[in-house]
Amino acid sequence: MMELNLTRVDYLQAGITSPKTLQILPLTGKTQKIAVGDNDGMLHCFGLRKGQVQTVFQASSSNRLSRVVLGGHAGGARDRIFTASGTEVNAYTKKGKKFLTFTTNMSEPIVSMYVEGTDLLTCGNFVFNHYRDCKDVNYFLSNDKINDVLCLPADKRNGITPILACQDRVLRVLQGSELLYEAEVPGPPVVLELYGNNAGEDGNEILYGTSDGRVGLLQIGPLVPNNRWELANEKRGGGILCLDNYDIIGDGILDLLVGRDDGQVEVYSYDETDEPVFRYSYSGNESITSVKGGIVGSPDFPEIVCCTYAGWVFALTTEQLTKEAGPQQVIADAAAVAKIENLKSELDDLQKKVSDERDKYQQTANSKTAVSAVPLFPIGDKFVLNKDDASYTLSLELQSPIDNILLQSDVPVDLLDVEKNSAVVSYSACNPEEGNFLLATYRCQANTTRLELKVRSIEGQYGTLQAYITPRTQPKTCQVKQYPIKPLSLHQRTHTFDEKRPHNRLTLKGQFSLAEVHSWLLFCLPELPERTPAGDSANFQFASTFLDTQLDCIYRRGEAVFRSDNVSTISILKDVLSKEATKKKIRLDISYDINEDSINHTLRMIHPKLEYQLLLAKKVQLIDALK
């Protein structure tokens, strides 16, 4: 098997980018062009000539660009660039001529978008709209947040089949404005991509990536889905932000390209059984928001083009840019000398700009009419529950280097070690009686723009975790981010419930509405949609990531029923819900049905974990003796 050696080449820096905002245009000459959109509303289209970036065109929008996708005539080349900005869609030719400005009738900004011929699919957080020739033809309201959308190839499927990736761990397959069926996936899906760029031979195979780092292939059948394969996140890498299909190895078979939010870029090839096999990994310091394969820098040399959160567009190229010369490395390409000179002059210009701005700031600061203003800086943050080790991963990312991060919690939490974390942590003394259980400072090394922390909470104890983020900028400023630690924080959404287990039941009755009881549950449990479910009643299932116990919630106006095989879960729910009802001055009639068998059942589930911890403690005691 051929070894893959790739070299990083930086092309340019745009503004902060959102996921899936970089595209590579189809090959027309010797090399391909790149289009990238940023949160400043700028669309940059550029190519490379003799190693130098050549701008093809630039276009600006009033709002940030949340998506950049390619479209074209049905069955033809996708050589037209579509951008989503707020509720507006703009389209450009490959030369930069704007041929469409379409203001949608959506009530929320466009988060994801897909173009298939004359069909435009757009999604906000909960709303899906399908437009044909800029006319609204279909509409769907999702039960949970929509993260991505795509459509199976119309020429293979005899029509439009939209698929929505939703936060509640399901892919929703639509037919017109109706839900055809739901396909459950192992984690919250955040990105969708057609398998092999054409959805396979039958046009019904799609790749999905989840926020907890899993990748899978799903076959969309007429009535039921079929899970072809799933890549588990064994190395505990970051969440998936982008996927692509491209033959980077050069064996004539498309490979799978994966971009993660911890800066990893991975390449997988397929074996004889069409199962993915790991081939290559590149580790960066910033989250990868887009990944695409193409021929950009030099003809005949395929490369993986990536875009980071901070806006860096770089390539991992198969071209060998350095060659051995005794103990030293000598740059092989003569054009690189000119590139170095250009970079030096660019650096001089930037230093002059910084100096001018600093002088300007000093003059303004000393003037009597000056008004002090705190500069705001955007923060990319995630607080995600990990199923494998029942902990939360808090990732914080800035465009400028981080100086320090102070963590404060008013509930007991444990900070776990993270291998990729190079920051120095120091703990300060806390007084739990004053509601302060954690005070820890992370001092970052120079040029650290992303920090990942792991936190484990205790169920039943709830409050707020606060992060005070200070970047290495002048004047010194700090921003606070708050993350709720919920009473049942280690539970995650699922769509199955084992009726054979012994269950305890909690029933609440009173003068409350569906929206009120939903808001109480939203306070108790993670991964619930903020919007009250449509209809007269709601049903949600949860599984504990720590003990593998389960919880079933059925509620309607005036009544709520909870079932769980863990009596502790029922007890926590009873305490919290009765407190929330008391705040609203709502009287509750509470009744229990405790199953004695459930206690033995839960203890049997806990026993292997206790046994493992006891064995581990004994091994730790032996360390000193072995030394």
UniProtKB/TrEMBL annotation:
Q: Which residues form the BBS7 helical hairpin domain?
A: 596-627
Q: Which sequence ranges form a coiled-coil region, renumbered to this chain?
A: 333-367
Q: Where is the BBS7 GAE domain?
A: 375-483
**Which intervals hold domain BBS7 beta-propeller?**
22-318
Keyword annotations: Coiled coil
Please state the span of the N-terminal signal peptide per the UniProt entry. none
Q: Gene Ontology terms, cellular component aspect?
A: axoneme; BBSome; ciliary basal body; membrane; neuron projection
* InterPro entries named in the record: BBS7_GAE_dom, BBS7_hairpin, BBS7_pf_dom, Beta-prop_BBS7, WD40_repeat_dom_sf
One GO-annotated biological process of the protein: intracellular protein localization
What are the BBS7 platform domain coordinates in residue numbering? 491-593
Q: Give the originating organism.
A: Candidula unifasciata
Q: What is this protein called?
A: Bardet-Biedl syndrome 7
